[in-house]
Amino acid sequence: MPDLVGLLSYATFFLVFASVFAIIVLGLNLQWGFTGLFNVGVAGFVAVGAYTSALLTGPEYPGQVGGFGLPVVVGWLGAMAASGLAALVVGVAALRLRHDYLAITTFGIAVIFQLVALNAQPLTGGPFGLQFVPKPLADAIPGNLAWNAAYLLTVAVLLGVVYAALERLVRSPWGRVLRAVREDEIAAESLGKRAFRLRLQAFVIGCMIMGLGGALYAHFVGYIAPEDFLPILTFQLWTMLIVGGSGNNRGAILGAVVVWALWTLSGGLLREIVPAQHQARAATLQVVLIGLMLMAILLVRPRGLLGEDAVVSRHARSVSPKPDVPTSPS
Amino acid sequence: MLQLVADGFVIGSVIALGAIGVTLVYSILQFANFAHGELLTWGAYLAWTVLVGITAVAGPIMPLGPFSFGWSLLASLVVAALATAALALLLDRVLFRRLRRRGSAITLIMASFGAALVLRNLLQFAYGAVPEYYSREIQVALRLVPRHVLGGLRITPDQLFVLGLTAFTVVALHVFLTRTTLGKAMRATSLNPQLARVTGIDVDGVIRATWIIGGVLAAVAGVFSGLTVQLWPQLGLDLLLPLFAAAILGGIGSVYGAVAGGFIVGLAESLSVPLIGAEYRAATAFAALIAILLVRPTGLFGERP
């Protein structure tokens, strides 16, 4: 049954990408959904993670640094560390100011990472990127489908871990203060909460998760190039979060699956109906469609498919069963 | 050395004109408009379209004097400026105005980010990704300073045209903002929107004027960029970071700050080329941005952080 095999391998492919995106969107959700930080450079932090892990674990390329050949897990941890470090630098400069400045600064850092990826040939391989990102345990698991399935399992477990950790975090006192800072910074500061430090922590943790997502992407695909991390990636991830519902971790995962499904479907459709010589042009229409979708969601249903829960603490839910108790001063 | 300074002033002209729009929208409408770069691109391509149209109807137009272009480019510039202003107004009408009524500032930024991608990709769909030029005439650069004085200075008539028209535009804008009622209303709204509304200023009119001025200047800047470099769909995206850096450097809301910031960023980019290489010149704008945020977030001429 070759059809079934084809379908299965397509499904694994789709699900791996959807899960990787879901992990990144979870990181974005911590920043935007729970803390109100507007990060326009998501693709940049994903790229840092992808390149770091690829360099730490990769083989030696002629005329390039790297080739450390470390275990893949070390690469993933290194990816998180590198993205977190980049976030720290950006955050210290921009997080004390109005939110627009963070948007502009993160936009800038993504541009810079793109420049470095394109031009710093000895480090990043330039426009051709890194071609031999090792696939973990590729020798131990024979067959493409089996390996893809095993990787899917790994990514799914990691997605579960990230989801569970974030759920714990945002429902902890720390997470509640994050929302307080988001809603009313002056009130939170007057209660002795250090808004800047909290925002910086949330920003760095979010970017570390994005870096992990980038590393997972790199090791699945097997090669990375600067064009994998263009602003359009940031835009797709944002659309996933907004469609799914920011401030809701399940919404973030749902949004990743839904938007990625729409993206692959529209891409497949365009490939079917548009003749080969016009495909590059038609691909721009795909971006237009997704852009219109984001704007429409912002206008029509700004809270997304699954909105934010009004009550975050499980204690509040179990202790005060009265539904008429207002939980937020809105 | 002199040559780099001159080049810096030319690229600075483009950045300054674009940054004026960014800073006006930022201070009057209270959000960072990520779609502003696309107004530059659209202005440049609209002018190119009109130019191609004129050439198709009237045949090739003789260049004016030493310049590489004829009257047709000037006519195209006017048409493109008006069309870009209309595009900015349309964008405000269908998107930003609705979000302004209930959304937060960040919703507006996000929407502008989406609008930027839609505009850029529509343009790329319509025109393709191949670079275009307004004119393929070869220009003889004028030697203003001989080679033995600080490396000499050569400048093309087109670049002089860009510098001259930029100076004229900035002076005209200065007169508008200081002498006309609408200009004064715009400055008042930019300083304090609530107070402006209370004192009976027609804020909707001010917002329309903001988009029109921003759109016209963006189109002029886009055409300048197309004239001195080339036209391609990423023109505005590449300039967006310098635009923001210039606006913040000058201080949000300050038109003169934006002009000064534009020239500073342009000079910094140009002078850094021998040090870090042309491919990293965008990094200079970013370094300037980070430095100003760390040292003086209100910018050189601004009052509000």
Can you put this structure into words, describing what you see?
The complex is a heterodimer of chains A (330) and B (305). Chain A is mainly α. Chain A has a domain at 2-230. Chain A is 72% helix and 0% strand. In chain A, α3 (72-94) runs antiparallel to α9 (195-221). The longest helix of chain A has 33 residues, at 2-34. Chain B has 305 residues and is mostly helical. Chain B has a single domain, classed as ABC transporter involved in vitamin B12 uptake, BtuC (Orthogonal Bundle). Helix content of chain B is 74%, strand content 2%. Chain B has a two-stranded antiparallel ribbon. In chain B, α2 (36-58) packs antiparallel against α3, α5 (157-179) packs antiparallel against α8 and α9 packs parallel to α11 (281-295). The longest helix of chain B is centred in the first third of the chain and has 32 residues, at 71-102. Chain B starts with a helix and ends in a 10-residue tail after the last helix. At the A-B interface, α4, α10 and α12 of A face α3, α4, α9 and α11 of B.
| C-alpha end-to-end distance of chain A | 58 Å
Distance between the termini of chain B: 35 Å
Helix/sheet category of chain B:
mainly alpha
Shape by Cα distribution of chain B: globular
Biggest sheet architecture of chain A: none
Helix content of chain B: over 70%
CATH class of chain B: Mainly Alpha
Low-confidence stretches of chain B: none
Give the ordered list of helices and strands of chain B: HHHHEEHHHHHHH
The average pLDDT score of chain B comes to 85
Shape of chain A: globular
Briefly note the structural class of the backbone of chain A: mainly alpha
Count up the domains of chain B. Answer: 1
**What proportion of the residues of chain B form beta strands (DSSP E)?**
under 5%
Indicate the mean pLDDT of chain A.
Answer: 83
Strand proportion of chain A, as a percent range, falls in under 5%
> If you compute it from the alpha carbons, what radius of gyration of chain B comes out, rounded to the nearest whole angstrom?
19 Å
